[in-house]
Amino acid sequence: MVAIDFERNVNSTRPLTAVRAVSQRGLGGVPPTALVLIGIVSVQVGAALAKQLFSATGAAGAVTLRLFFAGIVLLIVWRSGLRIERRALPVVLGYGAVLACMNLCFYQAIDRIPLGMAVTLEFLGPLGVALAGSRRWADPVWAVLAAAGVLLLTRSGGQAGWSGVLFALAAGACWAGYILLSAALGDRTSGGGGLAIAMAFGGVLMVPVGIAEAGTTLFHPTVLAAGFAVAMLSSVLPYSVELEALRRIPPRVFGVLMSLEPAAAALAGLIVLGQIMNPGQWAGVICVVAASIGATRTARRK
Fold first, then answer.
1. What's CA 290's distance to the chain center, in Å?
2. Is residue 185 domain-resident?
3. pLDDT for the residue numbered 159
4. Which of 39, 129, 224, 228 is deepest in the core (most CB within 10 A)?
5. What span, in angstroms and rounded, lies between the C-alpha atoms of 158 and 20?
6. How many CB atoms within 10 Å of residue 48?
7. What is the distance between the alpha carbons of residues 157 and 277, in angstroms, rounded to a whole number?
């Protein structure tokens, strides 16, 4: 879900996915803008469904199911490309560990604060990566705008539990690390084999944590089915439609569209979970979205 500096990360932060062939055949007639929006909605509905699963599994259990099932799907589809060089193994395993940590922090955040607030705060991770190494004249404007958005989100009253805010910021920091590791993963692996192994490794890391929190409930058929749905909505479907969209629109346009994710998360929280944010918090979301779009639009072309 990287909307910032996407041109640099287009081949690494949204790797090839489990249903690549299906997307080529079945999605060709859908406008690329609609595909991106479908992916955004799918991710946020998946997050809302995961939150509803917390009462049975807790945040750690939901993360375990998501990574486990996504890893299985990717391993099956990329079984012919799972061989990786020894020098790539540390990057792949590190990628999986960061992926697990990022999702765990994010799910802990949405267990405490509204979905829209959590996604907006998490978005500061990729925004920070985009601005950190840049020397464009407009960068301070986007940084100030994003900071204003954070202040509005956390100082406007309403649901703003500070533990949730800290978890969301930690998820954003992991997202920044995920972006940096993605570049290394793209350099040292090809196809989706590296992603498949990393996803599976992240799932393995989370298994003892998930069992410790959810116990045997984690293996209940209904819970497993819900976890599979979360994995499909949060990983397989969005990766598939975004891959098809990227074949037909420039990465810069894709990045601008992906900048709408915080707003989509706020709407999903409102519609699916009944989470109401006050006008000041909505203004904060808009500020971060505007900063993301601005940083993407003014990015230096490579």
1. 19
2. yes
3. 56
4. 39
5. 42
6. 22
7. 9
Tell me if 65 sits within 8 A of 206, measured CB to CB.
no
Q: Which pLDDT belongs to residue 47?
A: 92
Amino acid identity of 127?
L
**How many domains are there within the chain?**
1
Tokens of 119: 């996604």
Q: What CA dihedral angle connects 222, 228, 233 and 236, to 10 degrees? A: -170
The per-residue pLDDT for 126 is 81
Q: Residue 135 is which amino acid?
A: R
Burial class (CB in 10 A: 0-12, 13-18, 19+), 7: middle
User: How far apart are alpha carbons 296 and 294 in whole angstroms?
Assistant: 5
* Structure confidence at residue 17 (pLDDT): 41
List the domain range (segments joined by +) for residue 276: 6-297
The predicted pLDDT at position 57 comes to: 93
Give a yes or no: residue 55 inside a domain.
yes
- Give the chain's residues under pLDDT 50: 1-24, 302
pLDDT at 80: 65
In a domain, 1, yes or no: no
Q: Domain for residue 82, yes or no?
A: yes
pLDDT for 103: 93
